[in-house]
Design goal:
The complex is a heterodimer of chains A (322) and B (527). Chain A is α/β, with parallel strands linked by helices. Chain A has two domains: 219 residues, P-loop containing nucleotide triphosphate hydrolases (Rossmann fold, 3-Layer(aba) Sandwich), CATH 3.40.50.300; 66 residues, Alpha-Beta Plaits (2-Layer Sandwich), CATH 3.30.70.100. Chain A contains eleven helices and 14 strands. In chain A, the strands form three sheets. In chain A, strands 6-7-8-3-9-10 form a six-stranded mixed β-sheet, with helices on both faces. Chain A is globular. The longest helix of chain B has 33 residues. Chain B is built from 24 helices and two strands. Chain B has a two-stranded antiparallel sheet. In chain B, helix 2 runs parallel beside helix 8, helix 15 packs across helix 19 and helix 22 packs parallel to helix 24. The two termini of chain B are 20 Å apart. Chains A and B meet through helix 2 and helix 3 of A and helix 14, helix 15 and helix 18 of B.
């Protein structure tokens, strides 16, 4: 994987993007960027403008105002060049159901101008990656939803794009298929692809993505690294301590340590988990040193992070956009 | 849901326009004579029969198959709807709204009494005959919709059935007449005589010929569709006809039987829709589908929309059988002229292949963009690095390849004709046909991007009056150009004249439609 420097051209650069449909302002001054070789989550409530933004990025929609660039190329002026570098997977099943898996991929590979010999290799590779090699001669109409999703992903990859735009790729998939899809996306990042993924499944995005953009009512509420979003908004961090065994005296002994302000058990207490707030003058290192002297059997000690759900709820507005 | 759509209102406006068109035509046709009303009413009836028949193939056939296509049929059953509720609910709303289209015409058609040549009882009788035909066609289409897994197959079955019903009496009579006495058994002869008799009982063409007192039979586009068994009495010619006849009751009875069969067999035939395509046998499929061409969209259209080389070969062989059939009838008539066809045989063979070509062009143009929209694949197609214009041109090319069998048989018939085709076809006729074919195919493609299945009947509805609006100006422009060229000492050959004609047609008729289709396609891709 190559090193990303400050001079690296962003994979996606959206600047002051605004778009209105029949008087309805779908996007308003949307600005964010996605760095290459990252997995970027794009989340927002229904009607927030996610699909409109995605369509603008993948050249389907010419926005009223603003600029969208993909690897430095304008989607407005260089749409054909941009299309060669992106792979777009819409949120609905957009498939020719009367074709077999191989015919479907062969069609799109030919549409991207690949010669016949190269097509065979590419189709074999993408089917192997998506674990669909054994179903290459099956009719698409006979495949399950999860398999059709894999074929869609394989289709997106046939022309070896640098940027993948995936709109709700995990919707309707069973848990196993979701986990497998997550693994494929991680593998794609390892291969150097940039993945821009719009999804409602926040827990999976938190684990998967390097960075995230939250959009609400056509406006960007947050865009940046996932770590920054998930940091606790309080000035003083809260720490989680997990012990291996239940100890009745542990809470009292921790509370008596110097620098400890409060010790509490989480909402669903197990007798082994504690939330600890330190005084402003106490560092985590100092506290940990003191903690080890108590000779407790510690499993983990970590700074508590906000859950993406909480961050999402904090940043977005209740109710449906009218 | 249908009532909130703007398109039914457009269809109604189209019918009102058709009325105006019929009045104009009859006015120019028989100005100054006493039967202008009759001519007007005859035109109205012709348009109605045409539209009802085409609606049966395209609009009514999707009653149940649209649920199968969308995969929502099972949801209807889960909601507790029984077979009767589904067949009744899905077919009746369309039938009632279509019958309304007949009802709204009545005030206009009473004008024909004032114009002269028609009595009020003839008008009422004709509309009852048309309503019975519509009910019959709607229920036949419902049966096809229940029987078939997809709308395309249902449309094919409905078209074939109507075609057999219309042409079988003539073919049966011709076959019976051509076979020398003593060759066929008494039972076979009785059966061959029974077919036209049964068809005549429910034939709307025979009934309309009787109502309107048409001694030459009921003709559309110059072809007599009557069975030839109905005797037009003097009373009929005077307009003394019964308001309700056997055709009305037999049509309703047949429609009822078809409805009952549809309802009873709904569960049996309601397997989930699988999209039609080449064979699933691997070796057959490898041969039939092959590898994608460099012109990928053209390949997709040819193989997966028009049926590919397998279907093309089947069409070519079917064309050969039709040609051989005409050849056999000619032989039975005592004319043996090698492979060549002569006289009416060559002309009818030529017309048959031309009609096949026309039907294919209209079906492909009304379907090729619509199928993409139905499968929601246009947005995916729009993200490949091919321009929209090239996608549309490749789609046209893919469909054009599928027309080759029909074109080859037209060419063969022309070459093997004794000159009858050349005598019957004037340059103006050929130009007008090509102009209308180009216009109708563009119109069908455009309408298919707005309506679900009504593109084909709407095309016929709009193209018929449009012919009279367009053909004259375009041919006139060509004439003006020719005169202008001659005044500048430029000799206008047939080739140059054709080029000028094509240019004017494209410039003023096809180009605006092409731009409209492109813009609509882009708009749909963005949705």
């Amino acid at each position: 994987m190559s090193t990303i420097t400050r001079d690296t051209v962003p994979a996606i650069s959206v600047t002051n993007l605004s778009h209105a449909f029949k008087g309805h302002q779908a996007l308003s001054q949307v600005t964010f960027c996605v760095m290459p070789q990252t997995l970027h989550g794009f989340v927002g409530p229904n009607g927030a403008g996610k699909t409109t933004t995605l369509k603008a990025i993948c050249t389907l929609l010419k926005p009223n105002w603003g600029e969208v660039q993909v690897f430095g190329q304008s989607v407005r002026n260089d749409s054909v060049a941009v299309r060669r570098r992106i792979g777009f997977m819409p949120d609905h099943f957009s498939m020719y159901r009367q074709m077999t898996v191989f015919e479907y991929l062969d069609f799109f590979a030919a549409a991207y101008g690949l010669p016949v010999r190269q097509r065979d290799t590419v189709i074999h590779d993408v089917l192997t990656l998506t674990d669909m090699e054994g179903r290459r001669d099956d009719l698409i109409s006979g495949l399950s939803r999860g398999m059709q999703q894999r074929v869609s992903l394989a289709r997106v990859l046939v022309h070896d794009p640098d940027l993948l735009l995936l709109d709700e790729p995990a919707s309707g998939l069973d848990p196993r298929a979701r986990i497998e899809l997550t693994e494929i996306l991680r593998e794609l990042r390892r291969m150097g692809k940039t993945v821009f993924i719009s999804s409602h499944i926040l827990s999976e995005l938190a684990e998967l993505c390097d960075s995230v953009t939250i959009i609400d009512r056509g406006q960007i509420k947050f865009s940046g690294p996932m770590d920054i979003l998930l940091e606790s908004p309080d000035e003083r961090p809260l720490y989680n301590l997990k012990l291996a065994t239940i100890s009745e005296t542990a809470m009292q002994r921790i509370r008596e340590l110097p620098g400890v302000e409060t010790v509490s058990e989480p909402e669903f207490a197990t007798g082994r988990d504690y939330n600890i707030q330190l005084t402003p003058a106490t560092s985590a290192n100092e506290f940990l040193r003191q903690l080890l002297t108590l000779d407790l059997s510690i499993t983990s000690f970590s700074q508590q992070r906000r859950h993406l759900n909480q961050a999402f709820m904090d940043l977005t507005t209740r109710g449906v956009r009218t | 849901m249908d009532s909130r759509s703007i398109y039914p209102h457009i269809v109604r406006a189209g019918f009102a326009g058709a009325m105006l068109f019929a009045i104009s035509m009859s006015f120019t046709d028989v100005f100054g004579t006493g039967s202008m009303g009759l001519r007007f009413f005859e035109l109205v009836c012709t348009l109605n029969v045409l539209i009802i028949t085409v609606s049966g193939i395209s609009y009514f056939v999707t009653a149940v198959t649209e649920e199968k296509d969308a995969g929502t049929y099972a949801l209807l059953r889960l909601a507790g709807m029984n077979s009767l509720s589904i067949t009744l609910g899905k077919s009746t709303s369309r039938l009632v709204s279509s019958l309304m289209l007949l009802v709204i015409q009545l005030p206009f058609t009473f004008l024909s009494i004032t114009l002269g040549g028609v009595l009020w009882n003839q008008i009422v009788a004709a509309y009852l005959a048309l309503a019975a035909w519509m009910i019959l066609v709607a229920n036949l289409a419902l049966f096809c919709s229940v029987r078939c897994a997809t709308s395309g197959r249902a449309a094919g079955l409905a078209a074939t059935t109507i075609g057999v019903f219309v042409f079988l009496p003539r073919i049966s009579s011709a076959f019976h007449g051509a076979i020398p006495p003593g060759v066929l058994s008494t039972g076979t002869i009785a059966f061959l005589e029974l077919i036209p008799a049964v068809c005549s009982k429910i034939s709307v063409f025979d009934r309309l010929a009787e109502i309107l007192g048409l001694t030459s039979g009921f003709t559309m586009l110059g072809i007599d569709f009557s069975t030839g068994l109905t005797t037009i009495s003097t009373a009929s010619i005077r307009g003394e006809v019964s308001i309700v006849a056997g055709q009305f009751w037999s049509s309703l009875l047949t429609a009822f039987v078809l409805f009952v069969i549809s309802t009873v067999t709904l569960d049996f035939w309601s397997a989930p829709a699988d999209t039609a395509g080449p064979s699933e046998n691997k070796s057959v499929r490898r041969w039939a589908v092959g590898r994608c061409w460099n012109l990928s969209v053209a390949w997709k259209e040819f193989v997966f929309f028009t049926g590919g080389q397998t279907f093309a070969i089947a069409k070519f062989l079917a064309g050969g059988l039709v040609f051989a059939g005409f050849r056999m009838f000619q032989e039975m008539d005592g004319y043996s002229n090698g492979l060549a066809l002569r006289g009416d045989y060559s002309w009818w063979a030529f017309l048959t292949f031309m009609m096949t070509l026309t039907a294919e062009v209209l079906l492909y143009s009304s379907g090729c963009l619509f199928y993409e929209v139905r499968q929601q694949t246009q947005s995916t197609l729009a993200t490949v690095p091919i321009s929209i214009v090239r996608v549309l041109v490749e789609k046209f090319a893919g469909c054009a390849i599928a027309l080759i069998p029909a074109i080859v048989w037209i060419f063969i018939t022309f070459v093997l004709s004794d000159g009858t085709i050349v005598r019957n076809c004037s340059a103006t006729m050929v130009s007008s046909y090509l102009i209308m074919l180009g216009f109708a195919s563009h119109l069908a493609a455009l309408l298919s991007l707005y309506t679900r299945w009504a593109a084909l009947p709407l095309t016929i509805l709009l193209a018929t009056p449009a012919f009279f609006c367009m053909a004259a100006p375009i041919l006139g422009l060509t004439a003006v150009t020719s005169v202008f060229a001659r005044s500048h000492n430029i000799e206008v050959t047939l080739l140059l004249s054709s080029i000028i004609n094509v240019f004017w047609t494209w410039m003023f008729v096809l180009l605006p439609l092409q731009i409209w289709i492109r813009d609509r396609w882009i708009a749909l891709s963005q949705q």
